[in-house]
Specification:
mainly alpha
Amino acid sequence: MPDHDELGARDLRVQRTELSRFLDLQADRVRGLPLARLDRPRSPDGPSPADAVRSAAQALADLAADAEGEPRRPLPRLATHGIGDQLAVVGHDVVHFGDAAALAAAHDVVAAVRRAL
């Protein structure tokens, strides 16, 4: 991650730091919620918060794969108690490898998790 050689590297470092903090807060929030609440849809025909977190984790994994020049792969469907960790791991891959556009897109994905909880 050669930030020091890139134009605007300071801004990119700030973006990485802010995304990392925001991601950690939301992953901790997911980990701290009761499993029953995560699995219960907010509306009869809507997704559960757990489904929203899984979808966000997949979106982050896709952003990370694109940033690394790797093929996109489906994430395994973890039990509800593991989705906070999954979100954190794939999110930090984006923090580490993503460019400014990927970091901004990841921030939007994590913001959607916050709203879903």
